[in-house]
């Protein structure tokens, strides 16, 4: 029953994000935090048991893979100033 609730909540969050024109991750994160740790309606440890870590790892891998496929280097490439190069070096020591 809980797994069905997760599926229905995720589909409704996707639909809400589509209608409101937001990135889908925002309603998914908000609903996930509210339903999980805040109100304790769904317990991921009880739902997935020993499969929780592999499911989370696989989900992160899929998200990163999909993100890398849609990445456009022109969007992130821009002018790099001297400050961008020196600050990480200075403050990491």
Notes on the structure:
By secondary structure, the chain is an all-alpha fold. Helix 1 runs antiparallel to helix 2 (25-38). The chain has one domain (2-72). The mean pLDDT is 85. The longest helix has 19 residues, at 2-20. It has helices spanning 2-20, 25-38, 44-48, 52-69, 73-76, 82-91.
Give the key terms.
mainly alpha, 93 residues, 6 helices, single chain
Number of DSSP strands?
0
Mean pLDDT: 85
The share of residues in helices is over 70%
Using only C-alpha atoms, the radius of gyration works out to 19 Å
Number of domains: 1
User: Between the first and last Cα atoms, what is the distance in angstroms?
Assistant: 52 Å
The helix/strand series, from N terminus to C terminus, equals: HHHHHH
Query: What low-confidence regions span 5 or more consecutive residues with pLDDT below 50?
Result: none
Oligomeric state of the chains in view: single chain
How is the biggest beta sheet arranged?
Answer: none
Query: Helical element count?
Result: 6
Q: How does the overall form come out from the CA principal axes?
A: elongated
Q: What structural class do the secondary elements suggest?
A: mainly alpha
Strand content: under 5%
Quick synopsis:
The chain has helices at about 1-20, 25-40, 45-50, 50-70, 75, 80-90. With about 90 residues, the protein is mainly α.
